[in-house]
Amino acid sequence: MKIGVLGSGQLGRMLALSAYPLGHQMCFLASSEEDPSSLLGNTFIQNGSQEIIEEFAKN
C-alpha cells in the first residue's frame, strides 16, 4: 500500500518507521528536504502550488 502524508514532521517519521516493516511505501509532501521524515519516504515532494497538492493526492 502507498501511504501519502501531508507534512513530514516527527509523527510522519514514526508512521514511516512503523509502516516499512509491514511492506508499505511512504510519500511525503514536505516544506523542506531537512524535515524529520522527508529522508524516509520513497517519494519526496516539496510543498508547492495547488496543482502539486492535487497531483500528490491522486498518486
TrEMBL record:
- Ranges of residues in domain PurT/PurK-like preATP-grasp: 1-51
Extract the Pfam families matched here.
Answer: RS_preATP-grasp-like
Q: What is the protein name given in its UniProt record? A: PurT/PurK-like preATP-grasp domain-containing protein
Organism, by scientific name, is marine metagenome
